[in-house]
Amino acid sequence: MEKEDRKVVEIKKLNIKETTICNSTAQMLKKAERDGVETAFHRAASMKPCPIGAQSACCKNCSMGPCRLNARDPYGKVGVCGATIDTIMARNFARMVATGAAAHTDHGMSMLDVFREVVNGNIKDYTIKDPIKLEEVAREIGIEVEGREVTDIARDLYKELERTYIQVEGEIPFVKRVPEKTLETWRKHGVVPRGAMREIMELLHRTHIGVDQHYENITKQCTRTAIADGWGGSMVATEISDILFGTPMPVRGEVDMGCLKEDQVNVIIHGHEPNLFESMLDSVNDPTLVQAAKDTGAAGINLVGMCCSGSEMLSRHGIPHAGNFMSTEAVLITGAVDAMGVDVQCIKQGLAKVAECYGTKLFTTNPRCHIEGAEHIEFHEHVPRECTDEIVEMAIVRFKNRKLPVEIPNITTMGVHGFSHESINYHLGGTFRASYTPLNDNIINGRIRGVAGVVGCTSPRVKHDWVHVELVKELIRNDVLVLQTGCSQISLAKAGFYTPEAAYMAGPGLREVCETVGMPPVLGMGACVDNSRILIAASEMVRAGGLGDSIADLPAAGAAPEWMSEKAISIGHYFVASGIYTVFGVSFPIIEGTKFHKLLFDGLEEQGFGKWGFSPDPHEIAHMMIAHIDKKRKALGIDKTRERVLMDMQDRRELEAA
User: Fold this and answer.
1) Domain 252-400 has CATH 3.20.20.120
2) Is 346 helix (H, G, I), strand (E, B) or coil?
3) Which of 26, 149, 293, 469 has the fewest other C-beta atoms within 10 Å?
4) How is the chain split among helix, strand and coil, in percent rounded to 5?
């Protein structure tokens, strides 16, 4: 901290061992306390969550309130307008779903806007890098591709996918990917989305005072809106990102704060939009800018990712990644970050103060996100380098004028990332026989017990990273293959779960499969905005056969053990709507024992959907998920234990030749 500019203040000391298991973050938190710098961890420790708000027993949707109901006696009174606890909780839950879905939908529509401008020739810096995926996506939703030019296919794809957002009647295009039995359930209950904008608008309207006042009816629209997110806005964003920037394939990448270099200009990009990061990749490799950095004494320019756009670039290009959401302030405390550029989602306002303390240049770049105290350099896809070059130039100036000692944790972990649906398909079967059949066969024969999606944020309300690591450790030990996205992926990558050698931590069946295929027991699929990859994988498992006719039949479960955002609630609900048992940790915004709680935790499953679960304990979450997987195995008639024989090299050669 620059003492001449800001007085060092006393910060209440954290119990670091109970705060995080990330050694880099722990080292930086100790430094922050020495420097008198406050982080989100310190603020969380000094601020207790409101117990009434945490259980959604508070309604502030009109000026007659706020009305606070008693969680210990939820049916003891009602709001001023007469709203019951179930109505109040359903409205609050609905507003979280609507906001989360809006975040993903806005991101997806931004990606589609860029796609349109690229196809029409108005944006020159980006091109269609994966025409094969373009054709595959177009073919899946009924667009003719044979004998046609790429640009013609792309224009038709844009027009079709635009319906995902603006259509007012009908069904969104990607329902064509949904297994027929799952789609039948959606149609039976009237929850197939029309267009994301209409569903979000209607859901918010229903939560206004005096409109929808039945928790079951509100939940129905919640479900429709969440599906519009997972199978609409989010899925479009991921597919368009792959088409424009390349579909991820397995790639080695370095994770943790040790990827910062003291002798280089360090630039971090943090947020969720791949466009900014892709253009920054061009800027940091520009010979003129590289030479400018060297002229100041730097060895070069070091580009590093953070949070979800970082996960996307790690998966797509192997760009080093410094840490997840709860480490975004800690990485600035190193003093090594010369510039951090942010766009949207999961950007702490507290970054501005920490950046000021260490002289780091913090830049907002998106018109949707300005931060008081941060400089704004707007990013425009038509002229992207105007923004990214300026950020690099300012970073070079900061490197030249570094005043404070640099302290970089000497910790990095190498792993394999980039397991998109396409790469898993290839990894399992190769070019000519790409299929999920080998996965299904190994689930049927019992080597793999089932599949789990572990996703979501990190939270200061629990020990940072520990919940993710303990949960996944227990799952793979019990032969459950884990798919991961977002901050959860980085938690496990730092802990060393992303190498094929990590199979030694798995149970004997999963370990045998991983060793045969040469893959880790935990597959990183990208950013939290890429959760639709898991939906696609689940649909492919159904299509491959042998594991039921709908996603709800699969021996599969999901978890967000450190969730913290409204996006996470929307993600969780679209997995539940798709048929997946989904368990959240930390807390859950519902009062147990109420009618609304019973609907989410049991009633939806009875209707043919999935259901919610909750536990703050990672080991309990794991065994809740395993019990559900075993229940689904029994229903499929594949619960009989099979003899597992460890394979020698001759056995593997025969398997590969088959």
Assistant:
1) no
2) coil
3) 149
4) 50, 10, 40
pTM over cut 0.85: yes
CB atoms within 10 A of CB 592: 12
**What's the pLDDT tens digit per position in 181-225?**
999 999 999 999 999 999 999 999 999 999 999 999 999 999 999
What is 418-657's CATH topology? Rossmann fold (3.40.50)
pLDDT digits (tens, 9 = 90+) for 416-431: 999 998 888 877 765 5
Place of tokens 């709001």: 79
Amino acid identity, position 228 = A
- Label residue 3 by pLDDT band (50, 70, 90): very low
Q: Are strands 67-68 and 58-59 parallel, antiparallel or unpaired?
A: antiparallel
Residue with tokens 């991820």: 248
| Segment (H or E) for 252 | strand 251-255
Neighbour count for residue 297 (Cβ, 10 Å):
10
Residue spans of the domains in the chain: they are 79-245, 252-400, 418-657
* Mean pLDDT in residue range 443-468: 96
Distance, in Å, from the CA atom of 447 to the CA atom of 400, rounded to the nearest integer, reads 56
Answer whether CATH 1.20.1270.30 is correct for domain 79-245: yes
CA–chain centroid gap for 48, Å, is: 26
Coil, strand or helix at 14: coil
- Alpha-carbon distance of 548 to 106, in angstroms, equals 34
